[in-house]
Amino acid sequence: MKRLTFILVALLCVLGMASPVLQNADSAQARQDVTITQMASQDWIVDAEMELAEQFEEETGIHVDFQIIPADQYFNVLQTKLNTGEAPDIFGGQSGKTDLRINYDVETNAVPLTDQAWVSRMEPLVTEQVSLDGEVYGMSLMDPFGPWAIVYNTEIFAELDLAIPTTYEEFKAVCQAIQDAGITPIFEPVSAGWHHVLWFPEIGPRYEEVTPGLAEALNTNQSLFADDPTMLTALEQLKELYDLGFFGEYALSDTYEETAEYMANGEYAMTVGNFGLIGQIEAEYDVPADTFGYFVMPLADNQILNLNPAGPSKFIYSGSDHIDEALTYLDFLARPENLQYIIDNTPRFKGFSFSGLEYDYTAAEQTFLDRYPEHGTVYQTQVNYLNPQWMEIGQDISAMFIGDAEPMDVLNNIDARRTDMAEAANDPAWSE
Hints:
The chain is of the alpha/beta class. 45% of the residues lie in helices and 13% in strands. The protein is built from 20 helices and 13 strands. It has 2 domains: 27-144 and 310-344, D-Maltodextrin-Binding Protein, domain 2, CATH 3.40.190.10; 149-307 and 362-430, Periplasmic binding protein-like II (D-Maltodextrin-Binding Protein, domain 2, 3-Layer(aba) Sandwich).
């Protein structure tokens, strides 16, 4: 009987009619030794995801090759690969509708993910930022409610009898007192290329508070960055912080990866960080979490909490030879237990933009959120054609720091690049 069954199965295979079980077995065997590539900017792939990728390979036979590119080079490398048709199977990118259309042209270069089961579990605001014309193109693994803010050393503040500032002048006075005590006020790693840009667009809610409807006016080409006095003030104040030495002697060469170390050893009193940095410092350097707290960036007297539903996301390249395998990998990552694993094993992550996960704020984080009941959306998400030029803005601000450009030059350059991008996109607001 066994011999007869074997003969029947062999005959069915010849006729292309093998049973589903055997077909699945053949498919699993065929997927052995398959490698999918995932390219991302530095700091976007954490150790916990790499560990999960090893489990994924054990489960499926699909190997994930991670290609990590320095942050200041990443988007140029990605653009080159997309333009030449040599993109990796999965590529990382910042979400946001302008980026999806201008930087990645996802309608051409990415696989629609709308029908994937995990999409329904993403936060709607986050899903909106990886979607174009009703199609979802990306998976966002980010915390939409973990804003970038000033992380400060509570012990230094207590020793110097300093209070959390509520205006720029108060902030400047705090920095001066810290500097006078022989401590560098702010760790700002300018060489990262992106980090020092945060000071400007993250306080978008303040620009909107001073000039209601400004984002809409910018998006409809009814206003310019260079026309807004609050933006100019913010850049002038940022320049003043640098000129006064509050970023320290080595700001232009400091790297983002050094942040936790320098905050842990007390060489610096403050830095711009997001939720999870305090946990990272505690985990890596055994410094108690209550050593640190948060307050909003007070440039232009900002006191509004800055939220951002956009962030690093994963896209599957439409020209990939391994689309099915890449889909399988994203589905694997999206399992609640795997997302929770990444959160639980990455101190700087508080949560992800998916339902069904544990979301536990520290006392410092909850105090921070309670302190600022008013909140708004950051300008790199609110305003079209801003986020895609992030690294160029970084270059402009660096030039401003060293005296090769003025604050108004930074604003004029932003306007010029926005015009170029809008015209390339045939934006009707720029053709009237």
